[in-house]
Amino acid sequence: MVRTSLSGFPEWLPEGRIIEMHVLDELRRVFELHGFAGIETRAVETLEQLEAKGETSKEIYVLDRLQALKAAELGARAPKDKGMGLHFDLTVPFARYVVENANELDFPFKRYQIQKVWRGERPQDGRFREFTQADIDVVGNGELPFHFEVDLPLVMAEALNNLPIPPVRVLVNNRKVVQGVCDSLGVTDVEGALRGLDKIDKIGPEGVAVELAQSGISGDQASVLLRMAQVRSCDSAEIRQRLADLGVSGELLEEGLRELTELLDTANKRMPGVVVADLKIARGLDYYTGSVYESEIEGHEDLGSICSGGRYDSLAKDGKRTYPGVGLSIGVSRLVSRMISAPMVKASRKVPTAVVVAVITEDQRERSEAIAAALRARGISTDVAPSAAKFGKQIKFADKRGIPFVWFPGDDGAADTVKDIRTGEQVEADPATWTIPASDAVASVERVTD
Amino acid sequence: MVRTSLSGFPEWLPEGRIIEMHVLDELRRVFELHGFAGIETRAVETLEQLEAKGETSKEIYVLDRLQALKAAELGARAPKDKGMGLHFDLTVPFARYVVENANELDFPFKRYQIQKVWRGERPQDGRFREFTQADIDVVGNGELPFHFEVDLPLVMAEALNNLPIPPVRVLVNNRKVVQGVCDSLGVTDVEGALRGLDKIDKIGPEGVAVELAQSGISGDQASVLLRMAQVRSCDSAEIRQRLADLGVSGELLEEGLRELTELLDTANKRMPGVVVADLKIARGLDYYTGSVYESEIEGHEDLGSICSGGRYDSLAKDGKRTYPGVGLSIGVSRLVSRMISAPMVKASRKVPTAVVVAVITEDQRERSEAIAAALRARGISTDVAPSAAKFGKQIKFADKRGIPFVWFPGDDGAADTVKDIRTGEQVEADPATWTIPASDAVASVERVTD
């Protein structure tokens, strides 16, 4: 169900798209249930905006008008667009949108945004160059209370755990904890420590120790950092105990621990067992300033984090104001790709259609259209057979697409009948009153269990 | 509500986006009700695909990786992506998708596709460089019955007339009629005739006569073509009569008239008065092969056609097969832009939220969260006040966003109450049983009448 005639640019067949739309609809439903407003930003940003964070510049697709390029090749002077590129995430555009519209927005502003993003990297390890992200963020004007660092990951946990996939855990850490531990140990190259710890799953503790040494971190310091990185628990008392055992202390560490344990305690009340503190999380800690989030799907840990985010005290800035934010982003395409390929799920049919109305002869097509109109008026997705072929062929039209019902206009004043082509059961029916079983009304997406 | 910090790239404020999402949801609902399957194609096509139709090449945005460009500037050899650009419509990508997946698709294949497209033209007359289109097409394998040329414009008419906008008329013409008239008159430069007639609204009949003369069309021929272009009617008998009055005839003309009048007659039965034959429609007739469609919104004729399309006998082709198609495309961004700016409509609020739960003190935040969870479990979009400010300030939080209800947790064992902040009415309520008025459950979009 996945096609990529251009490497890195996935497309789904219709049944795959039904699965993707189910995911997108469910995410939107949960986000709106929690009061997030949907916005959409243009796909295009100025290169200046996109390059503000230097290290992502390699990923940008730059735009040029073909006409201008051709004119340039011919040596003519062509009007040059100011440097523009496709956005590579939804955070940079959102930050710009907030600053541009600050006077019209109500803060704290909670928004969700579900859009495609593009990254010009070489497609490797199945990485996509075009993919859909689903983000939620809350942004404050000047200040943003800590409780949003508890709320946001729980909204994502609810959204993800509503999908027909195995349980999703949200893993959390806190920049202040890691920074506090480094401060207490006298480690000054915190970025170096984070870079090293980030590789722990790939190269193991011994490999990380070597990396840390190269950043000028002593063996004793590295040993404590590696013990810290092994702390993983839902239980805030255990977290506190194990950090106390490391012999580290300090004001910032204490603040970080307060935040991390409050997040765990509240999460355990609202949604037991879903949020886990994992102190080896280092990715993003160089720019996040408080809580940081990753996630894993039970049994699909190899997929990596399909939902990540954190708190940044300076999501956006203009002349006078700073806008702190907390947010998370789901990599929808990567998730859907796994849902399809595993497979985790199956769509009940390839089309939205619940009923096909048969056509007796082409002269009587309008009778069939009238039946279809009556069914549609009652919200039932209905198609009319494309030709007045033999009924066997019209049934096959439905069967190939997974459409459950075929409707037969009654001949010579006889009542209409409707046939469930899965069971063969055929009953008299009136399009003004017939009710479709709820489970057949729309294409459904169900877990595949093997 | 419209912002364009980059010329030609519109963005909506949250209330504008609510209007756009209402439009997109309604279009999707109607398309699915008629059995169209939703697909999405990548935003990127090879230049080869995009340039297959020469005359559109000026509109293409070409992609390059920034890293490759920078390397080239430094004189280094960089891996060059094969020529890729952003799609400028949804027809070219759909045709490619059909050919690539022909073995997995079921024909006739009915699909809808709602996506952004990009055109690198100079933004003038409020033209957008990035905008959303909503397309429906049906494509056959080798053959495609005529009745789809009747069905498709009626689906679009239903979709558009379900929106909170003034009545939309679908205007139709038929390539075979115009070609047949030209043949009968001995006009050989049919393209020239179409180019001239296309300008009739802009430069008037006299101007068109001059243009036609330049294409080698005689005064007598031009006079008949101009009389043909004045024919506009819902009534198929009138159409036939007025063409007969022109003194033209021929087999192709007769076939075209049969199709055009069958379309009118069926449309008048299913949806009286919505479809109008308008023989001056010339745009697109150079590549459409049968019916051609445009549209107009009553009172907003100046906006031009916001929904256009037609029949093309060769939508797509591969080595062995030809795939004929019929389809129409709505320019959603242009429509929404007018809906907002006219204004035709108003959103009832700026957020999905129906209820804000007040917070008594920060220590009691979890009580408010529990109430919110109970309301959300029953499908009611609920937010919790961001801080335990004075109740007046918490009510203002709701009021600014247009949220109709504020929920107050009962103090000291008292029952909770919920207040309609529009009327001031406040009643006791239990989050497990309270029902919200249907009209307040979701943000609604209503016609503005002045």
Automatic annotation (TrEMBL), chains A, B:
Single annotated GO MF: histidine-tRNA ligase activity
The domain of life is Bacteria
**Any one GO cellular component localisation term in the record:** cytoplasm
- Could you confirm whether the keyword Magnesium appears in this record? no
UniProt-listed CDD domains: HisRS-like_core
What catalytic activity is recorded?
A: tRNA(His) + L-histidine + ATP = L-histidyl-tRNA(His) + AMP + diphosphate + H(+)
Keywords (A to Z) from UniProt: Aminoacyl-tRNA synthetase, ATP-binding, Cytoplasm, Ligase, Nucleotide-binding, Protein biosynthesis
Q: Where is the Aminoacyl-transfer RNA synthetases class-II family profile domain?
A: 23-352
Q: Which GO terms describe its biological process?
A: histidyl-tRNA aminoacylation
Q: Write out the residues that bind L-histidine.
A: D89, L90, T91, R119, Q133, D137, R283, Y287, Y288
- What EC number(s) would the UniProt record show? 6.1.1.21
Q: Could you tell me which InterPro entries the record lists for this protein?
A: aa-tRNA-synth_II, aa-tRNA-synth_II/BPL/LPL, Anticodon-bd, Anticodon-bd_dom_sf, His-tRNA-ligase, HisRS-like_core, HisRS/HisZ
Keyword Mitochondrion in annotation: no
Pfam families the record matches = HGTP_anticodon (PF03129), tRNA-synt_His (PF13393)
Q: What class of enzyme is it?
A: ligase
Matching Gene3D superfamilies: Anticodon-binding domain, Bira Bifunctional Protein, Domain 2
Q: How does it assemble?
A: Homodimer.
Q: Which family does it belong to?
A: Belongs to the class-II aminoacyl-tRNA synthetase family.
> What NCBIfam families does the annotation carry?
hisS
Q: What is this protein called?
A: Histidine--tRNA ligase
| UniProt organism field | Schaalia odontolytica
